[in-house]
Write a structure and sequence with these properties.
InterPro entries: TA_system_antitoxin (IPR051404), TTHA1013/TTHA0281-like (IPR035069). This is HicB family protein. It comes from Thioalkalivibrio denitrificans. The protein has about 70 residues and is of the alpha+beta class. It has one domain: Double Stranded RNA Binding Domain (2-Layer Sandwich). Helices cover about 30% and strands about 25% of the residues. The chain has 1 helix and 4 strands. A 4-stranded mixed sheet has the order 3-2-1-4, covered by helices on one side. Strand 2 and strand 3 form a beta hairpin. The protein is elongated. The protein starts with 5 loop residues before the first strand and ends with a strand.
Length: about 70
């Protein structure tokens, strides 16, 4: 499955969340670190829920990075 991931640069590093998976937010000091963290968090969250299909639309592509 592919899930949209939104990455934002913060004053302390990066934060990431998925609009397709409620409640998953990760932080990290590097972009690569936050991507790894959000992937693991989404996998763990979906396993816990017993849910294996996205609620939102399927997204093909990569990461959307937003600068604040």
């Amino acid at each position: 499955m592919n899930y949209k991931i939104v990455i934002e640069e913060t004053t302390l590093g990066y934060s990431a969340h998925s609009p397709d998976v409620d409640g998953c937010v990760a932080t990290g000091s590097t972009r690569e670190g936050v991507i790894e963290a959000i992937r693991e968090l989404i996998d763990d969250h979906l396993e816990w829920l017993g849910e294996h299909t996205p609620r939102g639309g399927r997204v093909r592509g990569g990461v959307l990075e937003m600068r604040t």
